[in-house]
Design goal:
Number of strands: 7
Helix content: 40-55%
Low-confidence stretches: 1-8
Oligomer: single chain
Shape: globular
Largest sheet: 3 strands, antiparallel
Radius of gyration: 18 Å
Order of helices and strands: HHEEHHHHEEHEEEHHH
Structural class: mainly alpha
Distance between the termini: 21 Å
Number of helices: 10
Mean pLDDT: 94
Length: 284
Amino acid sequence: YTSTTHPSSYLTNPTMSSLDTIKSDLKNLVSTKNCGPILIRLNWHDAGVYSTGSLTGGCPNAVMRFTDGGEGTFGANAGLPDVALGLLKEISDKYVVEEGVISHADLWTLAANVAIEVMGGPVIPTRFGRKDAVDSSASVESQVGRLPDADKGCPHLREIFHPKGFTDKDIVALSGAHTVGRCHGDRSGFEGAWTETPLKFDNSYFKEMLAKEYTDETTPKGCPQKKHGETGTIMLISDLALLEQPFREWVELYAKDEEAFFKDYTAAWVKLQENGCEGLRDTL
């Protein structure tokens, strides 16, 4: 790999690569493109389909690479097979396709964790050994009952997350990832950023949720959401549902104690990333 082959290259090492060189290239990508939030979403939607309830199966297998059917066509995943994977393509081509030192699913996991760190969040340990799907048939049957709907409240959140092995506390902690990124009307139908610093991974999501007054609005796509008039930040119905007890106690804790949020987020996030996986290892 040389700059003549890839004029806009993020790649730093032309030889067989180590974990450190992959992480370095991912950090460069996130810093250059400010794309951390969509890399988190990519990993979350890849791993988050796992369930042990009335629906079973699902695991992080990078099946969204295939858009002839399955998870690559789910409405919830709009923007991921094209935008997110487009951003990762150069790194994926080198380390997955050419060198074969990491799987797509592991790369997506690592990319999300690097993005969180680059944006100021906790340093999250990554384990390796996820196996990639070979075609779209490895998808789960539907997003319904596996990924949460933004316009529903606490009972729905429990229906989605409890079968994945998460507690109410975990639900609040994982929701804290909305401290970065924004909704895009052409993808989800919702529109706007949750916080005033959408590229900084901190506890602003919880602070702003408690401090601000939100009014109802309907997006041009017909989706109901809540908006703070002065700053233009938003909350979804599923976000403000966390102000109900017992979820609220965790919102209040994380708003005043960022270290507690980072600790609980890391534990829940790693669990999400490893659900449905076997034989993971600490090294490539």
